[in-house]
Every structure is written in structure tokens, then in C-alpha cells.
Amino acid sequence: MTGTLTSPDGGPIRVRMAPSPTGPLHIGTARTSLYNFLTARHEGGTYILRIEDTDALRGTVEYERDIIDNLHWLGISWDEGPQVAGGDDVGAFGPYRQSRRMDRYAREADRLLASGAAYRCYCTADELDAVRKAQDAARQPPRYNGRCRSLTDEQRAAFEAEGRRAAIRFAVPAETIRFDDLIRGAVEFDNALLGDFVIVRADGMPLYHFVVVVDDEEMRISHVIRGEDHLSNTPKHIALIRALGYREPVFGHIPLILNPDRSKMSKRKSQTAMTAYREQGYLPEAMVNFLAFLGWSPGTEEEIFTLDELAARFEIGKVHKGGAVFDGERLDHLNGVYIRAMSDEQLALRLRPFVPEALPDDALRRIAPLIKERLVRLGDAAELVAFLVETDGQVAARYAADELVPKKADAAQTAAALVRAREVIGALDPADFAADLLESRSREAAEAFGWKPGDFFRPIRLAVTGRAVSPPLFGSMELLGRDATLARLDAAIEKLAVTA
RNA sequence: GCCCCCAUCGUCUAGAGGCCUAGGACGCCACCCUUUCAAGGUGGAGAUCAGGGGUUCGAAUCCCCUUGGGGGCACCA
Questions:
Q1: Which of A24, A103, A220, A353 is 20 to 30 A from A477 (CA-CA)?
Q2: Nearest nucleotide (C1') to the CA of residue A461?
């Protein structure tokens, strides 16, 4: 790997992904994970997964499992973190679940309290809410008014006598914070504009801005690569880092993935759960390729890349600054490209979970090449192969007699055409019941009948598959078998007879 | 409201002062191929590089302003 990034101590870089299990793996989280992973790989560094499960109310183990499963599904693996050989707690930097690191946060909070960099705040939710409302009414920025910043011992005692439980706030130093963002370059914030924020809740639970800083230090994270939504949180983190005497990592804020209306991609306006894409039959290879190009490009016109190829080429510094709309049509196209590139055997294997169990493996293997170039998603296969598992009755019930009739013909003519087709098809021995023979015989019949192949085949297709759109007709008939094919043809002829 | 970030075809992007009368891909349109649908092939429409000022012999590329968009400002992450 051609590393260009260096960690403060000169060693290999250490990057991390820190998802919160408050929902299934989000597309945006997956992309951030991917960029971190690719950066670690490209630079020969270490990639760490840390579960940010301090929000006990919203986080669940199911979501954590979903996140880990889907990250693995994408092909993203981590060198340190949950489910890595050695276990969560082993290694110099674990555990990797914040819920198991509470003692560390408590210790660091105490240090801040002792140094005066943080203080206890006795304001209640109602009081804070009232302040915020007043600020809003006065068109002032909503931020903590600092009431508890310099309480006297007596005041503190009085609040505690009231039974109020204190949260811990960080006393944000009024200073200008500058940092050199990997992607945006020099950025500057005035922390005098910030309110003192809570780092530990009254119930003792430490909060995000605080734990992220503690963990990144203890896990020796050298480069923090995260979504742009964290850019304006960074000065808070840097202030905390300084107050705690930590080393400052390099920050890199990647652009957001957007809804079609260009707002931050959300569940409300887009499908954001990776699982949903997986269930529809998007391939992890296509998803990774697609995600990688949402905010980055190799600078050439190549566009199909494997994970390894991406790792070789990806440079965090070349990531764009502007957000990128999630374009489902482009994903569809890419998915189709990957599907078509697969071998028939591979496709059949991956199609298995998406088609009816009633479809035998052998039939699936044989129909795979027939439907390959018709698939956008693996899930689309179910409809394409359905005629093979449906009963003759179910197939017949899918269409009405008049649908069999081509525009320029009537029911009687169509019936005659089907009878003709049935004759030549029925004349074939079971042993000869193969696509090429079926096609040549049917074409001859069409010509003899005086119909264009398209008109002649249309009612046959509907009769045999129950659908106007199907895999190639003669291959479909071969797979269906002689008996079912003839039975379905008979059923169609019967339908026409009833109408006429 | 305040702070910060961003800005090339509808979308993803190439472009790091002259190679750009701006290239590719998706999508769209037409034609070809064709048993349906796809896939594939060929061609086309589509961006006065958000607008306005500079700098320069020369700007999509550098600077400033304006406009537009986005993000943040929780005892969520």
C-alpha cells in the first residue's frame, strides 16, 4: 500500500468506525465505514470498530447484530473490535463497546471536574427548555446560558438539598479553534459562540461528544474520518482533547449522502437500511462499488472496481467536498453489470435464497443463464421463474382469453394457431423436447400458418408462462417439460373455445 | 437567529490556468438487433462550468462579493 498519511507517533495510522446501534446499518454509516476501511487498507493502517452504545434507551443488540452482519456482508472487516479473534476485551485498546468502558469515562469526567474544566449543572429539563424557548423567541442562538458555571458551595448545597441530580457540563474555553481537515483544508471556529455542553447526564450516563474523545485517545486513533454532519462538532472535541491533555488526531469530514431533494439522506425520504437493499438482491460488490463513487473517483473513466482495487486506489484526500445524491438508478445499473459478469453457476448459487424453495437446484441452474441479463436485482428472479413452480391452473388463471389474441386476429384464428403449435410441439418426443428443436418447429409452424413469429409466439408464451413477459420462450418450455407445456397449451385452447 | 461547509449536464462525476467550442457513466430519446422483456450496438438531446466582479496574455480551474443548497447549535449519536 502506498501510504501517504502518517500517525502522530510516526507509526501506521489507526482509523475507526463508531456506529451507534440505534437502528439498522444506514447507507451513510456504511459509506463512512467503507471510506475508513479503504483508508486503513490503502495506508497499511489499522481499522477499528467500536460500538457506541451509550444510548441505552434507543440502542438494541438486534441493531448491533444488523450493523455487524451487514458490514461483513459488504466485505468490510476490522482488525480490532467486536467479533475479532481475541475477543472484545482482549488487546491493549479494548473493550470496544462503550457500555463496557463506563469506568474510564467516569475517571476522565472526574479529572475534568477536579481541574475545573467541567462543572456540575443542576438545571432541570424544564428550566433548560424555558431558556431555549426564550432564546428562540428573542431570535438568539439556542445555547446553555451558563447558570451553573460558577455556583457557590451554598447554591450547590441548596440544589442538592432539593434533591436535584447534577449533570456534568464542559466549560468551553472561549477561544478560536483551528484545524486542518483532510478533505476541507483549514477550518476555523470560534468556541466563544458555543454553550457549555453536557458531557455526563444527571443519571451518570456519559454523552457522545465526551466518550468519542476519550475512546479515540485510548484507542490511539490517529485519523478521525466521519460524516460532514460532525464538522461543527469538531471544535467541541478539540476543546475537550486539550482540556484532557490528549493528542489531537487528524480530522477528515466526508460529504453527506443526500436524498433526491439534496437534504441529508434519511429514512423518511429514502431507503436507508442496508438490509433492505440486501433483501432485494443487490450484490455487496455492486453496493461497495456504488458507495465508493459517492464522493470519490479514481480520476479516470474506469468505474468497475472490486474492494481490493478500491483499497489500492482510494485516497481520502481526493474525496469531494460536496454532498452526493443517492441515485438508485445508477445502483440498479451497476448491480446489473455485476450480475451479468457472474458465471451461471455462481448466479444460481446466489439466486437460491431469492427463488421459491419448490424450484429444484437443477432447474435453477438451468434457468439462471436464461434470466441473467434480465435481472436488475437477484430478487427479480422470483417472478421470472414463477411459471416453473406454479400449477397449470395457476398459470391459466393469470390471463384472460382475449389477452391471447393478437391485435390483428380474432379468437378463432388464435385458437387455430395454438392448435397448430400444440401439434408440432406435441409431435416431439420427450427426448427431443429441447429449445433449439422447439424453436425451429415453431418457426416453421408460424410460417406455414402465415403469421409473423412474434404474433404466433405471443399466445404461446402467455399460455405456457402465464405472462406476457418471460424468459426466452423455447428455453422456458424445455425447462417446464413436455407434459406441462402441452397441458398449458390445451388449457389456453380451451379458454378460447369457451369465449368463442 | 448564529456558526460552519459546499456549488461542472436531471444524477454520479473527469477537470488541479492554456490539452475544454467541457470528457465519461446513469437516466432519457432515436435507430439497429430481436419470439416478449431485457441485454448488446450505433447515434442524439442535455452544463454560456450558480451569478457578478477581479487577478492573468489566457480561468470551470486562483481571489472577493452575491445567490442558492446543506450541516450544526440536545441531559441523541
A1: A353
A2: B36
